[in-house]
Design goal:
Blueprint: H1 2-17, H2 22-38, H3 42-66
Helix pairs in contact: 2-3
């Protein structure tokens, strides 16, 4: 089960980071999360993480709709999943 979940996680990262300008946004989001963690602002961390995950979800769903990525590509070991 853990291996399957890691495969899906990897697939989502590949799908998201393959879209133009996404790596920069992702890096910026992660820096904000890390800064909030260092300041021990748990409510802010929670909000930033949720926003980041929902944003990523929309990117992946958009890629599914465009046909750029298929759900089967999300698992490591599939032809496009790595």
């Amino acid at each position: 089960m853990e291996k399957l979940l890691r495969g899906y996680s990897y697939g989502y990262r590949v799908a998201i980071l393959g879209v133009n300008c996404i790596p920069q946004r992702s890096l910026r989001d992660h820096k904000k999360m890390l800064s909030a963690m260092k300041k021990r602002e748990s409510a802010l961390v929670e909000r930033l993480v949720k926003e980041h995950i929902l944003w990523g979800k929309e990117i992946v769903l958009g890629e599914f709709q465009k046909g750029t990525v298929r759900p089967t590509d999300m698992v490591r070991g599939s032809p496009r999943g790595g």
